[in-house]
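Discrete fold record:
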Amino acid sequence: QYNYELIAALVTDTINTTLDATANWWGSDVGQAIQNRILDFKKRSDHAYVKWNPFLACRELTCAQIQLPIQTILQMNRPL
């Protein structure tokens, strides 16, 4: 059983396959919390990569978009 809101099950063998999920509200403005809601290439190498940044600051479509810096998303302090 999966505990994700988005599963990028576009089975692929290349990192070049991307699902654009930008401009969505993910229930948080914390990058790690958003990533925890997505099952993609970062967790399963046979799935597509999900581009979710920038994202909406709230649930309404009229909200501003937030763009996180790349180091916030990639967690540069973790080994590859």
The chain has a mean pLDDT of 82. The chain has two helices and six strands. The first strand starts at residue 6 and ends at 7. Residues 1-73 form one domain.
